[in-house]
Design brief:
Number of helices: 4
Distance between the termini: 60 Å
Number of strands: 5
Shape: elongated
Strand order of the largest sheet: 1-5-4
Largest sheet: 3 strands, antiparallel
Strand content: 25-35%
Radius of gyration: 17 Å
Helix content: 40-55%
Length: 112
Amino acid sequence: MTKEEMMYREERQLRAIVDCNLLTTDCVTTGTVARRLKMKASELYRKLKERKILYHSDGMWMLMPEYTDLGLLRYRYIPYYTMLGERKVRVYPVWTKGGVEFVKKEIEENNH
């Protein structure tokens, strides 16, 4: 692959990441949701895992199948470079407005 082809391929991949991230502009991170509930993100993840809403696989949090079509969660992509110059992409979940309401309701119901 020529240098020009590699640059074009990388440019296309970055454009795809930008396009996907545009779908998450109105979403919030799990840390933000957790702070609103006066807890840490790790604690919120643990509680959602205990309630079988989320599971952890290959370093990423994902919704259980029965929740995937409800529009609760989207994924944000952050490209970065390693110290050796290798390009990678970090993927993490972000909650939609409906997802935030769902999580708040789920946590509040189980705290009473």
